[in-house]
TrEMBL record:
This is DUF3801 domain-containing protein. InterPro entries: DUF3801 (IPR024234). It holds the Pfam family DUF3801. It comes from human gut metagenome.
Length: 104
């Protein structure tokens, strides 16, 4: 019995991608738009921090809409900044590699 309770607590700490309908039942939703290149990193960070979310593709803009509970907005801001910083770091590294390539 104690093991089941502990296992349930661990599951509640792990974020997961949910159906939008199920997420809506849990409360007010917010969303952000993100392109496909950042989606994988965003999902990884959200799962790590235990945020429940839902992803839908916007057919008009070809971006993805990530829906999450309004109570998680501060966490989402943090995660979004982390993903953007990580993406910028990748770009800087590749520019440095190009410069070194031309120097040699």
């Amino acid at each position: 019995e104690t093991l089941e309770k502990a296992n349930g607590n661990i599951k509640s700490l792990i974020g997961d991608e949910m159906k939008l309908k199920d997420l809506y039942k849990k409360g007010q939703l917010e969303n952000i738009s993100i392109d496909q290149s950042d989606l994988k990193d965003l999902k990884k960070e959200l799962n790590k921090l235990g945020v429940s979310f839902s992803v839908m593709k916007n057919k008009e803009s070809q971006n993805y809409e990530v829906f999450f509970q309004a109570k998680d907005i501060k966490v989402m801001e943090y995660v979004f900044k982390q993903v953007i910083a990580k993406e910028n770091k990748k770009e800087k590294e590749s520019i440095l590699k190009q410069i070194k390539k031309y120097k040699d």
